[in-house]
Amino acid sequence: MATIEVTDLTKDYGSVLGVDSVSFTVERGEIFGFLGPNGAGKTTTIRTLLGLLAPTAGTATVLGADVRDDGAFIDAKQRIGYLPAQLGFNEEVTGEQVLDYHASVKGDRRRDELLEIFTPPVERPIREYSTGNERMLGIVQAFMHDPELVIMDEPTAGLDPLKQEEFNEFVRSERERGTTIFFSSHVLSEVRRVCDRVGILRDGELVGLEDIETLLDQGGKRVQVETTDDLESALPALDGVVDVNSFADGVQFIYTGDYNTLLRELAAHDVREIEISEPPLEDVFMHYYGDGEPAQSGQEVESNV
């Protein structure tokens, strides 16, 4: 049985359509990235999977329980960890009090282990926390009861680069333990390092379901080149060049073609400086599914939890 099974899930707010007939599955022990531009419907889907929103049509089962059946979903919730994008902790209590409260509801058998990896100052009140410390506290509370499934909305927002990498390593180790991870993100480097598969939303619709390597191959690389001669006029003849923008000393573009072909072309020019990097997820998304701007009809309606 899949850990998450979504079938024709629709959430209509009346003024906006949050998600529209979305279907996908997430297998046990899989790290599944849920991607898309802001307003695509990611948070709406997550809140529906948690039973916080009732679907307008369609359904989803999580750990075998139908999200529309409150009674059946009670047990499943005990086996789920959740990290919202907006944490909403009471700023007047300490981190330890936050964890004590969550422990009273769902347990904390891994609390000490997690506090050795993620190190929020639990003795201090939340109002004194940095964004990163608050995020680490949220990660601890999401995993400390050793859930079968963890659902996270932008899990590394606010973490410094070192803690982001520790988080990535931790998530990979959780997969080895059999934990299923489902998270939304717009950080391509994070998705690349940890995900097995990704689902991509656009305007509330699931427009792609890919393994991570396929997504990255389609997304290409961002290339920025400074030359003393005219490289830009040669680019239209190269297959795989899109989104060309010139600047004072050179040109920037997304390249999805054969890298040897690109290098041969660059070798014919006087290159002063070159930078090749992963494009932002927005650029990957737009190249993969069209270069029009996302419509506003799928804008998410969000609230803190």
- Major beta-sheet overview: 6 strands, mixed
What is the percentage of strand-forming residues? 25-35%
**What's the end-to-end separation, in Å?**
29 Å
| Strand elements, count | 14
Strand order of the largest sheet: 6-7-8-3-9-10
Q: What is the number of domains?
A: 2
- Ranges where pLDDT stays below 50 over 5 or more residues in a row are 291-305
Radius of gyration from the alpha-carbon trace, in angstroms:
22 Å
The first-level CATH class name of the largest domain: Alpha Beta
- Topology pattern, helix = H, strand = E: EEEHEEHEHHHEHEHEEHEEEHEH
Structural class: alpha/beta
**Share of helical residues:** 25-40%
CATH superfamily grouping of the largest domain: P-loop containing nucleotide triphosphate hydrolases
Quote the average pLDDT: 88
Provide a descriptive summary of the structure in words.
- The protein has 305 residues and is an alpha/beta fold.
- It has two domains: 4-216, 3-Layer(aba) Sandwich (Rossmann fold); 221-278, 2-Layer Sandwich (Alpha-Beta Plaits).
- The protein is built from ten helices and 14 strands.
- The strands form three sheets. Strands 6-7-8-3-9-10 form a six-stranded mixed beta sheet, with helices on both faces.
- Helix 6 (161-176) links the parallel strand 7 (149-153) and strand 8.
- Helix 3 (95-106) packs parallel to helix 5 (131-143) and helix 8 (212-219) crosses helix 10 (281-289).
- The two termini are 29 Å apart.
- The model is unreliable at 291-305 (pLDDT under 50).
